Description:
Blueprint: H1 8-17, E1 22-28, H2 35-48, E2 53-56, E3 59-61, E4 64-66, E5 69-71, H3 73-81, H4 88-91, E6 94-96, H5 102-108, H6 115-128, E7 131-135, E8 143-145, E9 151-152, H7 153-160, E10 164-169, H8 174-187, E11 192-198, H9 207-219, E12 225-229, H10 235-238, H11 245-257
Magnesium ion binds near residues 74 and 135.
Amino acid sequence: MSQTNVTSQTKERNAALRPERVACFVTGTDTGVGKTHASATLLHALHHGGYSTTGMKPVASGGEWLDERWQNDDVEQLRAAGSVIAPQEEMCPFLMRMPVSPHLAAAMEGMRIAPEPILDAFHALQGRADAVVVEGVGGFQVPLDVGAARWSTADLAVMLGLPVVMVVGVRLGCLSHAMLTAESIRARGLRLAGWIANRIDPDMLLPDENIVTLIDMLGALGVPLLGQLPWQVAPAIAASQIDLGPLYATIRDMERMGQPSTTEYEN
Ligand SMILES: Nc1ncnc2c1ncn2[C@@H]1O[C@H](COP(=O)(O)OP(=O)(O)O)[C@@H](O)[C@H]1O
Ligand SMILES: [Mg+2]
């Protein structure tokens, strides 16, 4: 199957659709499926579309002490792909050292992941860039806290009230994972603007046929393919494969209908 070619006609249509500001929440069919890779690619595509951009990784687990500060690989990749400079505490208000589920990593450091600092950081980033790409944590239902303060990545997406982009790591098992994730996003009342096919497994059998199947299954839910990211192609180059049109259209539609209020969320 040929790559998604973003034609000059598509570019013209997208220029007409282009909202003033863009923000989206990137989730995936699992951890390690290419959310960071796709978020970085989206940042480049949005910059080509004329936006100043920054990534956000509200919650990250796995840190290394480098250059006198704790660093996380996802945050560094998003920082490299963005066009504006933002402080680490805004890009990543919760950076934990241990590479385990965030609520466990936080507990190991005697802290809890709370919604307010994330909302504050997101709003601060919106003041710095026209486009903010927020990368979720792990899969869509990863817990951020348990017990009385229970909440999850899904709640985080609802709190931010952003259109969602779903990254499918194209590998064996992805068909069911993609449908489960799409249905879960929809069940939370979120707008699923589109999906990205990320070719993470060069040895997979029949990858094109799997993508065609997903185009059919997700298409039946009204969820379009935004583009395919080839194996081992850098985000700055893969950006030309992304059609931002469906994301723009979703944002415009949400603006028309009134964005979901973030104050509706109560932890
Ligand atoms: N299209 C791709 N081609 C080759 N390697 C990829 C691709 N997408 C992701 N990877 C690699 O797979 C791993 C997981 O990707 P990452 O973007 O960090 O996933 P996630 O953010 O979902 O955990 C990383 O080592 C990344 O470099
Ligand atoms: Mg990541």
